[in-house]
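Project standup — Tuesday

K.O.: blocked on the structure for the chain from last sprint. Re-posting the sequence here as requested.
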Amino acid sequence: MQFIKNIFSPILAVMKFIQEHFKAMIFLLIVFLIFAPTSNEDLKPNNLEEIYLTGPIMDVSDVVKQIDEASSNEHVRGILLNVDSPGGAVAPSIEVAYAIKRAREKKPVIAYASGTIASGSYYASIWANEIVANPGSMVGSIGVIMQGADVSELMSKIGIKSQSVQAGKYKKVGAPDREWTKYEIDELNKVINGTYDLFTTDVANARGLDINKRDDYANAHIFTAHQAKDVGLVDSIGVGYDAKNRLAQLSGVVKPVWNEDDKIDRLMKKLSAQTAVMLYTYFPDLVMK
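H.V.: unblocked you, prediction finished:
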């Protein structure tokens, strides 16, 4: 009897394991079926990379990281920056712009205006080899703004007074508890105009435009796609299909293989963008929009 038990003990052990871990095995099977490649094509590394720049521009660390990784990836032969953003903070916009500039030195980059490419998001795109604009996109708004609320009257009505201790004449510039003084406005204008000069100079250099005619294409003008093409802000009009084909052409790719879009990641970024809108509403800063 013991001999028979010894023979069947491995089989019994397997059956016991299956009974105890059946649910876990079913779960792993489902995960495998969802994420397993469906064909040999899925096993090929992508040779073209699409990166999204959406919503107000605040934290761009993920976007810059994606651009730098695609730039250094030997399998990726071209980068498509898909833009739908109203702009945002100055420094992050420049971070993306310079990441694109670095990438362009290694491989072709196309910026595609899928919705809005304005102010900071336009700045982020200027160093691409070409900018393709959707026919219905809004382009331009090359300008800088700093805004804030004067809540002194409201504070007075509800009996609140502010107090502070500071060193430096300009330390409370932009404070919302009173109307800004002339010297404060002059100080803010110095920053605004300096940033605007930086913005327009970079646009002129990147796009091959005449800085002396910046009022024609900058000055916070808002353009349709066709109007933007007429003043030199974009290179061509087309949809995403056209932008992808143009990148494949510039990259010399005969059989394009694009990176898979992570839908959960896109959802989280959209939620982050909505949060950023609220933050901009209640905590304004120096922005491009």
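K.O.: great, moving the ticket to review. Residues 182-207 form the longest helix (26 residues). The domain at 45-142+215-288 is CATH 3.90.226.10 (2-enoyl-CoA Hydratase; Chain A, domain 1).
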